[in-house]
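Fold sample X.
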Amino acid sequence: MFTIAYNANSKVHLLREKKEIDLFFSWFMNILPSRIEELISSVKTTEGFSDWLGDYSSASLARLGDWYETQLETRPYSPEGVEYMKRIMRFDENRPIDFEPWTLTDETLATSVKVGMYFGEALRHRLPFMDWRPFKVGSGKSKQPNVDYGQPVLEGPKVLHVNPVGICQTLAFAIARGQRSGRHLNELFEYNAKMREDTRIR
């Protein structure tokens, strides 16, 4: 019914009914432990990373980012995929459409979800007041769904929610474009952790 190779930016999440959001969340949480174990095994069996410690520390995110960068692969869009992208990105008929003619492979998407799960668990270890929740909240006066609607996020009292999978997939696309390196994974972790720590102190 659900796939580990999901795209956090897909409109499918925005279209889910609340009951299906709960089912997706339950599926996500059920597979989370085993998928993190798979990730740790994959990293440690990669040459040069056998000494990596998957201990959810900030330092572990730095090395994980290095590994993550080596795992990213892209594929060209099919002609049908190109037309679909043109359709969903045409907000204004007079606006030129600009998007990469490629996307991440399914294997890379699956890896990014596993990295996102680990990222989220690392945040939970650092910020014990946050926990995984299915996100069902709209935004603004119009109550249009938030970009993270329908997805597992970390939430806590008095702090902004965070979508770990969304963060890690956004980084994957940035790495593929040559705009970021894997080391940015640790920077994102520190930024998100510190922002929520500071919010709790106020």
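Fold sample Y, listed below.
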Amino acid sequence: MTSKLILINIVRWFILLFIQIILLRNLSFYGLATPFPYVLFLLLLPFGIPNLLLYLIAFGTGLTLDAFYDTLGVHASACVALAFVRIQFISISVNRDNFDETEPTLGNMGFRWFSFYSLLCIFSHHLVLFLLEAFKLKEIGYTLMRCLLSAILTWLVILLIEFIFYKRKLR
């Protein structure tokens, strides 16, 4: 990774966490849908990042959010689960050795691939997050409804952010 890419990711981390903590912390639509666009940081980390470093970054990001949300490791667990799903999906769908692009963005990978990738990772993150937050199976229907609606809302916000900063790949 180049120093420019590292700097971009550090700035992206601060901006997305600032938006999540300051602007979106108390935003919830009828108690069912809550956007978590900070996961975009983990989704856009470069392909070549070592797995251990990805897990550490995901854990640190989640722990930072836990400190502000007063949730004892819920976001950290969800971010590590997202990192696991990300690693598995990328290892199946992308040959990292022969790939020119460094980041899995909408402009680099295309709408279909990025949509499937982001939905899968976001849903796994939200599933772990809301199941650990509720921590009981008595309200599983309500928890799954929150997970699904929040995942869709988060995905739409992430697509909006990606389209704002969309750079078409020159072929």
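Sample Y note: Residues 140-164 form the longest helix (25 residues).
Also: The chain has seven helices and no strands.
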